[in-house]
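Appendix B. Raw example, untouched.
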Amino acid sequence: MRDFKGKTAFITGGASGIGLGFAQVFADAGMNIVIADIEAPALGAAVAALNARGAQAIGVECDVGDRQSYARAADRAFSAFGKVHLLCNNAGVARTGQTWEIAESDWEWTIGVNLMGMIHGLQIFVPHMKTHGEASHIVTTASMAGMRASVAGGPYTATKYALVGLSEQLAKELAETNIGVSVFCPNNIRSNMPNNGRNRPPRFGGPIDGKTDIHAAEHIAVMQDRNRAGMDPREAGLRVKKGIENDQLFIFSHATERSVLEDRFQRILSDMDAAATLGSQGSLLK
């Protein structure tokens, strides 16, 4: 997908951070913008700012982990602009702590937003894109946590790995269509994402107090310190746009962790070699 002008982008979690960077970049490229976000005040402010700079943008409150809420948001996009050509699965949350100590409800919340949010988007928009038949693209915001373990905790790391794998699967399934697929794996980006617990829905326990909840407070402090020197979200958006134009499956914001990935992949290959030293199938049964 290289022609953006006059087409429509649907961006989840687009009211702030990386998602807002996407919205600004694709609006500047001439796209209609639909921001779907759970945080109403930020949503209104983001849409107003986009429209003030000449964009055609609307916002709709949406809990991506709720299929019905997602479907209503998509219907709003269809009513406003007709066809959607770019789906940005961007909404994401995290819950820190020891993997075995994190409450089941927080696992469900993180999986619901990060993984099921992507699945809901695919089930709604892939058939729509295939029906209208025009060049389209799906980009999902994973993380470097989808490539290696993360301080953001087990649920976050597990779901981000899932997003990477699902994007690879999707790319194979759509290889013979004109729907491109990318997975964005950013490192530190300036955003308020570390304090995402402010938007935890009541069914999962309601908002997390980032000052009194020990795990949230520690995570926010660590990540906000890192994010102060992070990439501007708009630059992240520009890098994603370039990756879409180049039809890249993997889009990275930073190249600084190349050595970490090389170490991980080398360990995988070494352990594969260890299997080879055991001989062919059935050799240990002789």
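End of appendix B.
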